[in-house]
Design a protein that fits this description.
four-stranded antiparallel beta sheet; about 30% strand; mainly beta
Length: about 160
């Protein structure tokens, strides 16, 4: 399964075509049903047609596609992270500023991977473990994640969302 990407109209980053929010800047997206482009406003900048809001559970380009992970959400700390291929979770990783407050999370705790459109998490030998739905992950073994899964990095819990 190939991951089809489109450009975020806000930050210009390539993101999955069925995104509701940009994985990088977090902006809510609109969709042009005429040309298929993401949009910022009620009119498409490419073709001028009216755009539509994208709602969770209603992917922009393919209403029959399954829900694809796009974010990690930690409700207790009010954190929303966009998934990024090969990003390192931890105090020294890609989201380092976010994880500085969590001393139980290792510097390089886990890694996000997207292989053929399937998101995975891999523990990098963290001190206090990475858990998926309560099960401790094996070190250096990529494990698929899905929307509504619970990921726990040491004692910090995240919901996998679209």
């Amino acid at each position: 399964m190939k991951l089809n990407l489109k450009q975020c109209p806000y930050c210009k980053t390539p993101i999955p075509e069925d995104s509701v929010y940009c994985d990088v800047c977090g902006e809510k997206l609109r969709y042009c049903p005429s040309c298929g482009a993401f949009a910022k406003s009620k009119r498409c900048a490419k073709c001028g047609h009216p755009t539509e809001e994208i709602n969770a559970g209603e992917p922009a380009s393919n209403p029959n596609s399954k829900h694809v992970p796009g974010h990690l959400v930690c409700m207790s700390a009010n954190i929303r992270l966009g998934l990024s291929h090969e990003a390192i979770i931890g105090r020294r990783g890609n989201y380092g500023n976010t994880f500085q407050q969590f001393h139980s999370v290792s510097g390089n705790h886990a890694q996000l991977l997207c292989v053929e459109g399937i998101w995975q998490i891999m523990d990098l030998g963290s001190s206090f473990g990475t858990y998926l739905n309560g099960e401790k992950l094996e070190k250096n073994k990529p494990t698929p994640i899905n929307v509504n899964d619970i990921l726990k990095f040491a004692d910090v819990e995240f919901l996998v969302s679209e």
